[in-house]
Amino acid sequence: MGITGAGKSTMARSLSSRLAVPYHEMDALYFAGPGWAKNERFAAQVTEITRSPAWVFDSFGYPEVRDLLWEHADTVVWLDYPRRVIMPRILRRSLRRTLLRESIFNGNRETVAEWFRRDHPAWWAWSQHAARRADIQRRIRDPRFAPLRVLRFTTVHSSATWLSSVVTRRPRGDASPHSA
Hints:
This protein has 180 residues and is mostly helical. The chain has helices at residues 8-19, 26-30, 42-50, 63-72, 83-100, 121-141, 156-165; strands at residues 23-24, 31-33, 37-38, 56-57, 75-79, 149-153.
């Protein structure tokens, strides 16, 4: 988890690969189609995923599923980077997506017009950075989530070092004698 632009998806994909567990992109589940249409089955799909034995999400979670995720997770990886780290990342990503007209989240695209809206990722990351950090800190202190193991990384180097220490596992069913 972390603010937009922290590298949550990249971390989640890498962690998923290393642990040989399914990765789920929250925004791809939330947005059902072009025009940023919301998936009416979103909460049900996330509920189904959290019932499986292992999973990795790339998000703090939308409000309607946030508690569900936190109640079923065993570990939270928090990429708590400062604005000076995330803003260049989000600006580069949004600029690339806009200029190249990249399709994201079920056919949606970032447009030039969206750059002037308060919900554009760059504006949102800038304006919500402190609020998101405070919200995460409140959740971590919440007794309901006391069993969670929280790994908080405040630098890219520390998170990369930790990720490189995560032992790569082979997918289940691999008959290799070297399987973890």
